């Protein structure tokens, strides 16, 4: 009987250590996941900002012909 209690206690101790390890690993994984999501969000935001800046630059550098072609006005009415 004494030997059985000893073995049970060892199993309980092993289970508790295993449980703590798993919770530590799980918390580390959750933290890493949050960090990766945040990094991805920041990257996406930076990419959108770069695209917006590129469009602004492109708009600034348009020639008169391009601006005239994009105009919705019918220039024939003004001749």
UniProtKB/TrEMBL annotation:
InterPro entries from the UniProt entry: DUF3886
Protein name: Sulfurtransferase
Pfam families: DUF3886 (PF13025)
Span list, region Disordered: 1-20, 26-63
Residue ranges, compositional bias (Basic and acidic residues): 35-63
Taxonomy, superkingdom: Bacteria
Organism annotation: Anaerobacillus arseniciselenatis
Lineage per the UniProt record: Bacteria, Bacillati, Bacillota, Bacilli, Bacillales
């Amino acid at each position: 009987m004494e030997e059985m209690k000893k073995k049970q206690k060892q199993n309980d101790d092993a289970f508790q250590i295993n449980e703590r390890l798993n919770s530590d690993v799980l918390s580390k994984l959750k933290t890493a996941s949050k960090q990766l999501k945040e990094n991805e969000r920041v990257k996406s935001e930076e990419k959108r900002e770069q695209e917006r800046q590129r469009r602004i630059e492109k708009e600034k550098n348009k020639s008169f012909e391009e601006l005239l072609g994009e105009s919705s006005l019918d220039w024939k009415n003004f001749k």
